[in-house]
Amino acid sequence: MKTAQANLRIYGIEPDCDCDSIVGRAVRQIDGVRKVEFDQGHHTMWVDFVTSLVTVDQVVDTIERYGFRVARESSVPALN
Question: pTM of the entire structure?
Answer without folding.
Answer: 0.85
